[in-house]
Amino acid sequence: MNELLNIAQIIIEKGLIFSGVVAAVYISTRLINRDNLSIEGAFGLGGALSALCAVHMINPILNLALSTFFAGLSGTIMGLLMTKARINHIVSGIVVTSGLFSIILVTAGSNVSLNNKPTLLAFLNLPLLAPYNKLIVLGIITSAMVLLVRWLLKTEIGILLHAVGDTPQMVINVGKSVHGYTILGMTLSNTLAALSGALFVHDGGYFSIWSSVGIMVIGLAGLILAETLGTGWGWTLVAGSLAYQALISWTFELQLDPNWNKLITAVLIIGLIMVKQSLRKE
To answer: Model's pTM, two decimal places?
Structure first.
């Protein structure tokens, strides 16, 4: 029984960590209607900067804020390439991610160990709830993320972000810049991915440049699972992330080689898309 509870807790913790990636994919593909391949680079840079901050003993809360903010600026670069340089969004994402890969190697190297340095997930110390302190912190951060972005999307800014992907002419009609809101959307997308990257490092106690490989696929799988549960921004995105982590955990229970996880995810995405398409035809 205790083993099942431990597995469930790990699934929830990982699901909360990667919910930012799912949300990042949602912002770019559903709101802005542009695939954002730089999410992988933002995730990696967020983790690298967070690891460096931890090694230099920067306050964990400030650590998370700084790493998320500066890594999120990669989305601004992505948006500028799309709008001002008029480079295709797929090419822009590849270029930004490639550039960030080099930046990460120069600033943090390929691996950084935190060596038991203070992290945000160890910030809370409630003796009575000791086994769940990390889960509580992740729950608070994820809840704040969902509520803040939900509030933002209900404001004029959020309405115009929706319009950029659906009816950009409406943005022009009200005297606003389509390019400006596209850049804002991409910045928000990468900021959410960077948040996940930083939390991933805080959770694992190390940074590896290879940890961001396949992150885009994880986010896409979580989004598709979320959309089978509901639509729009909200807790369904978190549920989709949890569902994905539960499926991956199930593969471990079946004692499948972890090297197959990416292929399993790819097959899962294809299967879910085919099911959604068949339901639409009906």
So the answer is: 0.92
